[in-house]
Amino acid sequence: MTRVLILDEIVVKPGQAAAYREAYRTGYRPGAEHRGMRLDGAWQSPPGQDYDELPTTLYYLWSVEGVDGWWAMRMSRKADGSDERFDKLAWWQAHEHLTLSRKRSILTPQPDA
Amino acid sequence: MFVSLRILTLPADRFAARDALIARLGEAAAGLAGVRTSWIAPVSPVAVINAGHIVWRMTFETERDALAAPLDPTWRAKIAPLLAEVQLTGVGYRVTRSAVRQAGAGIWRALIFRVMPHGFPDAARELEDATLLFPKFIPAIRSWALSPVSLVEGPKAFTHVWEQEFDSLQGLTRDYMQAPIHWGVVDAYFDAEYPQYIVDPQLIQVVGEIDRTIMA
Questions:
Q1: Are the CB atoms for B143 and B98 separated by under 8 Å?
Q2: Distance CA B57, CA B152 (A)
Q3: Does residue B184 sit at the A interface (CB-CB below 8 Å)?
């Protein structure tokens, strides 16, 4: 089954790129991987270095195994069986103060590419 | 047409009498003034969220008729006693946007949800417009209605009711869930991980079996 891609584009405030990357790596990534998400790539712009004077856009490209994998991620439960969505929401809200904006897109291959 | 939709949750010690309660409520509803249609059924044991045990959908010509129903002597004498110790969650809504096709047996499903205040008005409108694309891209939806809530019974201030009928449960659990318009577009408004997230996660998905369309 075709993997479904999930692209996070997070515009981080000037001077906060390293802090956000670290928070995402240690606070978001483990839970996402537990939900079946695979990190296929991570990029940033401007490229090459961090600038304290400029916003930085962080790109994280994830994938899940098809639509069933997408729903399994979406409806994930915690070890005690309770809904995990409140924890996910809490993580995003707790780090909003580091960002200017963000966007999440779901992608699939182009049919004629 | 105005709909009164009620979800009944029974105390544990009354669950065994569910079918008898359904029968008695159905009989009593037949004597209520102003009722256009009344459908009352057990809630499906699968594919539901916070849906209670019994679903009761009545239609009236007007909101005023719906408001008057619980004041009817029949309600007070025959229905109210049956509802003692039953947790009631209800919404009332005028059906505004819908397409209904007469058909036979199948399932009826409603998603009853609340758009949080920060979602009004722009994001709520976007969500409604995107939801209205479902019937075009999911042929298994044979009837549908998207309605704004004007009356609420219970603690949650629900804002929308999204109803559909399918020929079978698979129309919901397979076709509806697998459609890209669902997981790739509309679900963003329901998913806490998106910036577009505006729908209160404490929602109701209720499903019941029907022997013919109930949405006409």
A1: yes
A2: 14
A3: yes
Between chains, do A67 and B178 touch, taking CB under 8 Å as contact? yes
User: What class is the B2-210 domain?
Assistant: alpha beta
CB atoms within 10 A of CB A40: 13
Domain with A100 in it = 4-107
Q: Looking at beta carbons, which residues of chain B come within 8 Å of A9?
A: none
Judge whether B192 and A86 are in contact, CB under 8 Å.
Answer: yes
CA distance A33 to B190: 21
Q: Which residues pair with B90 in a beta bridge?
A: B6, B153
pLDDT digits 0-9 by tens, B104-156? 999 999 999 999 999 999 999 999 999 999 999 999 999 999 999 999 999 99
Candidate from A83, A104, A108 with C-beta closest to B193: A104
Extract the tokens encoding A14.
């000037």
Among A90, A88, A74, A70, which residue's Cα sits nearest to residue A4?
Answer: A70
Specify the pLDDT at position B112. 98
pLDDT digits (tens, 9 = 90+) for B54-101: 999 999 999 999 999 999 999 999 999 999 999 999 999 999 999 999
Mean pLDDT of B25-49: 95
Tell the residue number behind the tokens 């004007």, with chain if given.
B150
CB B1 within 8 A of CB B59: yes
pLDDT of residue A1: 63
Report yes or no on A113 lying in a domain: no
Contact predicate B187/B176, CB 8 Å: no
The mean pLDDT values, 10 residues at a time, for chain A of 113 residues are 93 98 97 96 97 98 97 93 90 97 96 82
DSSP state of B84: T
Predicted model pTM: 0.94
How many domains would you assign to chain A? Answer: 1
Domain ranges of chain B: 2-210
Is A112 part of a structural domain of the chain?
no
Look up the CATH number of the domain holding residue A63: 3.30.70.100
